[in-house]
């Protein structure tokens, strides 16, 4: 099939290119924008079955006037002394003056005696913010305007103030985020161009992936937006960035797979058209299987209970599908027309280098497969042991620079009030049937809630416009986004509050800590479902590719072991060496996307080459040696590009970006080098012919179109 596809594409290369251009233009012009299906509404992140989501919905109905976000103005004396009655009165005047300015998207400006810290160190003014997302540009401008007004109002008063909260934090760190992702984008292009220049010594080969992936990105965005409109999918605003990273990752892999094999065939003496036909024939099945495994891995995200991942999966699957079609049609058409000029001006493609590093590595693995398999496997197991100490971290604020206004104001707030003052736990008491709550029921519940486990302070009950609902905000005595607080809410506090509800009523627990507690439960559930299902489906694809049951088993085990090793290495570095309280809770699913899914490409390329060399008549040890020699440089180049791209994130002054950068970079390095270049070839050599049981994948098929076998003595990079 792939030989026929290769012949069609090569013989009608101009038709393929023109057809691609017309299709791309039509898709870009007729499909909606990707921004049309993006959403920052967090209430859809969790299913409605979770209690924190029920609390959000109850709060919106019972307190329709409440703002969707808040900014907290934290006022203190400039000399560090306690606030005086005159200072407290001045803060009240500040609140009224700010309210009179009618700053867009703000409301409330609530303060008073209850807003003064018990030790008189600070007083707060709570400002309501009207927005659906903390990064709403109009909201960011409102916070900037608010800060400017505060400075003018407090001039000469002996008081200073800072604005804390999620939106204020986003304002303070917006430039840091933008610079970090700009650096990543630039670094990606530089790494791709620079590394391919080093490998092929050709500007044409270096620019080819950048240009093609740019076109594919435009087409993919249109198709994803169209699918989103058709199936009512809402995806995160991060989708554009994730799509770009995925396309550069797999796109560079597939293009390198073809270019390395094309150069190999030219060195073997094929003309430019025959070389591409044979390349598509030999590599097409590998690319299709690799893409199929990645698509399956992404589509398994539909099983996730977290809404973001469920909608992300189809979008990424579409991206991989478009890149697959591109790799089997547009790339071969363009390269077959360019011929040897794709490597211009270098002449290195004409001769095979002697005594290369890949040749020496392959020979070493072929001679000592047991030692190599034991050493590489032991390294992965040792790193994987770090998973036992893994703790999820939900405190984004601790990962940002602590010298910003929002960070300093938050620190002042937490010193003066209970630790949970900036993110209270919202408890709604309701009859559920519309009958009004009595004052006795509300006061009894509030008193019981104040004495619940982990509660540092209970704020006065709030009556809603709905007489059947009241709210009590609880300030925890722990950091509200710490593991301790999340565990407390999930395991003890919720049960205690449910039991404290008077007869005929029920308590619904919400707020940031409760949301994270539910996300924690959902995340654990999703990983326990997604990883086994994805492993099973990837094993099925490998079984179809290899016509074997044995090889897919140890290949999937290797991928899962690599996932654990990557997470363990991250735990060792950040929790162990750096003393962080945990690893960002999003990291396991990020590793699933970029290490399990994309890292599988390298395994498939290597095992397919091992089978090919076995079919050429080489015994298992020799097949492993030649397979590593031939496929190793491709795996190394693709892995270095993707790992280097993520590694740049470690330069960002934001903890969770550093963690993501290190984890994905080390995961790709482990996938490409330890797993695919050492562990899998060595294990395959040890198992020998049994690796292909019950089929005969390592035997030359009796019939079918085949290119002439390459001499085993020819060294190819």
From TrEMBL:
InterPro entries: MMPL_dom, Mycobact_MmpL, SSD. Its main location: membrane. It holds the Pfam family MMPL. Residues 698-717 are annotated as: Disordered. Keywords: Cell membrane, Membrane, Transmembrane, Transmembrane helix. Residues 206-337, 555-685 form the SSD domain. The chain crosses the membrane at residues 12-34, 180-200, 207-227, 239-262, 283-309, 315-343, 370-390, 527-546, 553-573, 585-605, 635-656, 662-687. It is found in: Cell membrane. It is a multi-pass membrane protein. Belongs to the resistance-nodulation-cell division (RND) (TC 2.A.6) family. MmpL subfamily. This is MMPL family transporter.
């Amino acid at each position: 099939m792939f030989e026929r596809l290769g012949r069609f594409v090569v013989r009608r290369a101009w038709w393929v290119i023109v057809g691609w251009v017309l299709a791309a233009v039509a898709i870009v012009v007729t499909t909606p924008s990707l921004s049309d299906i993006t959403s920052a509404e967090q209430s859809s992140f969790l299913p409605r079955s979770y209690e924190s989501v029920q609390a959000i919905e109850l709060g919106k109905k019972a307190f329709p006037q409440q703002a969707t976000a808040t900014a907290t103005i934290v006022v203190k004396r400039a000399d560090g002394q306690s606030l005086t009655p005159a200072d407290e009165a001045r803060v009240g005047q500040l609140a009224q003056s700010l309210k009179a300015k009618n700053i867009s998207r703000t409301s409330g400006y609530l303060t008073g005696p209850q807003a003064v810290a018990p030790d008189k160190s600070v007083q707060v003014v709570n400002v309501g913010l009207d927005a659906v997302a903390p990064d709403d540009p109009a909201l960011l401008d409102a916070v900037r305007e608010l800060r400017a007004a505060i400075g003018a109002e407090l001039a000469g008063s002996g008081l200073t103030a800072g604005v804390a909260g999620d939106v204020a934090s986003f304002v303070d760190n917006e430039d840091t985020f933008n610079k970090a992702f700009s650096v990543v984008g630039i670094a990606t292009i530089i790494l791709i161009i620079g590394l391919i220049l080093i490998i092929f010594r050709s500007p044409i080969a270096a620019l080819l992936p950048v240009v093609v992936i740019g076109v594919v990105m435009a087409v993919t965005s249109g198709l994803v937006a169209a699918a989103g409109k058709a199936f009512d999918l809402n995806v995160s605003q991060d989708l554009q960035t994730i799509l770009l990273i995925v396309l550069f990752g797999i796109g560079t892999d597939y293009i390198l797979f073809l270019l390395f094999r094309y150069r190999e065939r030219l060195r073997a003496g094929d003309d430019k058209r025959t070389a591409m036909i044979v390349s598509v024939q030999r590599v097409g099945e590998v690319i299709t299987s690799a893409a199929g495994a990645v698509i399956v891995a992404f589509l398994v995200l539909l099983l996730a209970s977290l809404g973001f991942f469920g909608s992300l999966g189809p979008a990424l699957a579409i991206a991989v599908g478009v890149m697959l079609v591109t790799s089997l049609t547009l790339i071969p058409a363009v390269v077959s027309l360019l011929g040897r000029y794709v490597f211009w001006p270098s002449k290195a493609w004409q001769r095979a280098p002697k005594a290369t590093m890949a040749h020496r590595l392959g020979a070493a693995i072929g001679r000592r497969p047991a030692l190599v398999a034991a050493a590489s496997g032991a390294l992965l197991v040792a790193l994987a042991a770090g998973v036992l100490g893994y703790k999820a971290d939900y405190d984004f604020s601790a990962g940002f620079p602590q010298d910003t206004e929002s960070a300093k104001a938050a620190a002042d707030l937490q010193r003066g009030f209970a630790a949970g003052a900036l993110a209270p736990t919202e408890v709604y008491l309701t009859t559920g049937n519309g009958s009004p709550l009595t004052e006795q029921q509300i006061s009894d519940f509030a008193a019981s809630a104040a004495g619940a486990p982990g509660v540092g302070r209970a704020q006065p009950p709030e009556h809603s416009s709905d007489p059947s609902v009241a709210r009590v905000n609880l300030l925890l005595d722990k950091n509200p986004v710490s593991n301790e607080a999340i565990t407390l809410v999930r395991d003890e506090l919720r049960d205690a509050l449910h039991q404290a509800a008077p007869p005929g009523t029920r308590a619904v627990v919400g707020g940031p800590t409760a949301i994270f507690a539910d996300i924690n439960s959902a995340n654990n559930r999703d990983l326990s479902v997604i990883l086994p299902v994805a492993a099973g489906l990837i094993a099925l694809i490998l079984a179809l590719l290899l016509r074997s049951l044995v090889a897919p088993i140890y290949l999937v085990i290797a991928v899962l072991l690599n996932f654990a090793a990557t997470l363990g290495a991250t735990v060792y570095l950040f929790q162990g060496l750096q003393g962080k309280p945990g690893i960002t809770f999003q990291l396991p699913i990020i590793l699933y996307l970029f290490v399990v899914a994309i890292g599988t490409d390298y395994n498939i390329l290597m095992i397919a080459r091992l089978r090919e060399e076995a079919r050429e008549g080489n015994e298992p040890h020799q097949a492993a040696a030649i397979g590593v020699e031939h496929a190793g440089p491709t795996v190394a180049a693709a892995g270095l590009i993707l790992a280097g791209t993520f590694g740049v994130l470690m330069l960002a002054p934001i903890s969770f970006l550093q963690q993501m950068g290190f984890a994905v970079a080390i995961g790709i390095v482990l996938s490409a080098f330890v797993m695919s270049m050492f562990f899998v070839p060595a294990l395959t050599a040890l198992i020998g012919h049994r690796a292909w049981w019950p089929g005969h994948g390592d035997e030359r098929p009796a019939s079918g179109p085949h290119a002439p076998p390459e001499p085993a003595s020819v060294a190819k990079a």
